[in-house]
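Appendix B, record 7
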Amino acid sequence: MSLGDGAPEETAMTVSEVIAQINGMLRAGLPNVWVRGEVSGFRGPAASGHCFFSLKDESGGATLRVKVFASDYRRVPFTLEEGLLVLARGAPDVYAERGELSLRIVEIQPSGIGALQLAFEQLKARLQAEGLFDVAKKRPLPLLPRRIGVVTSRHGAALHDILKVLDTRFPNAHVTLYPSSVQGAAAPGEIVRAISAFSRVQGSADVVIVARGGGSKEDLAAFNDEAVVRAVAASRVPVVSAVGHEVDVTLTDLAADVRAATPSQAAELVVERLDRFEERLARGERDLKISLKGKMERAAHRFGRLASAAAFTGFPKAVVEGRLASRGAARALLSSFRRIPSSLSSRVEALAQEVRSWVDRAAFPFLLGRVAAERRAAADRMAARVAGANEKLSVAAGRLEALSPLRVLARGFAVVTKEGETAPLTDAARVLAGEGLRVRLARGRIRAQVVSTEVDDE
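Structure tokens (predicted):
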């Protein structure tokens, strides 16, 4: 039975069959095609891990939908980004549910640059934005480390070079090796564990060398691994990176506190030659002695000039006069106190005689008032005398304190006399080298001997 002018129903194909034939034809005609285009509409992998986006011509004239299954996307070493120019290999495919043509990609790489280099640049930019490479965070190496940690292969040439240099420069250096692979899939994890061990165990190392010999970018890939770079930046002890040769720069080099071109140079940076270190110590000791000697000589010269200054020429005489004056004031004060009882006794006796006279004249009431008045007057006079005596005592004590030689000595001055003499020495010309001196300080005395003299003509 025919349905109008169209194809017979029994020969009609289903949509699925048509799409299947189209897919078969496409895959037969383009079984493995490479496409060059810009990534467009990339939003990252879906929950399933698959990625769906488009590739478009650089001119923007044509667009092709693509899909990357999770198993293939995990093998991409770099991060897909919007606008990135890539080369994609895959086969065309029509999605049956939507009838949409797309390209199923099984391999993808950046156009014009290697995948490892692109991954390197992307990770470098991200870590640099986080501040892992900041120069301000770099720590200085210890001057003389007691323990040196080394992270490298047990059988590599890098370990041999490091130990050879350390043995030559500082034979007593204590080295702890934490062996690790330096290339291959297992290398990043082993390097991270080694660095973390030195950070975790207190005192296990004062500095850590992370090293390997040169190689291709693929060989050095472990030292561009994000986990390794973060472990170096987070290390509690300074890290010296000695990865590859001078022309090779890894992210580990950028994160380390110090970068060495080779493992041998890393060992040279960590310890200084023993003989040169000892020479530096000796030179520092000599410089310190010269500096201290110069300061002491300048201080002695200044003290000598100060002691012979005109302001201190009459100091001993002033001390003697002050002592005599204070003694005179003390004697006058004591005499004044001694006269007080006799004066009071005379006054009381006279008052008693007057009382007896008034009693005899039968003037007892008047006598009582007079006695009370005299008693108050005597008390007032006594208080005035005592106040005056106290004032004299205060004045004498102040003069004594002002003239006391101990106050001058307490400010750092001294009284110098020649051995066997009591007169103060005021002129350096009066002594000769080798003569003995006695120096009186605020507390105690010092016996000294003249080494040299210098007369100031100023």
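Remarks on this record: The radius of gyration is 52 Å. The chain has four domains: 13-112, 120-272, 310-405, 415-449.
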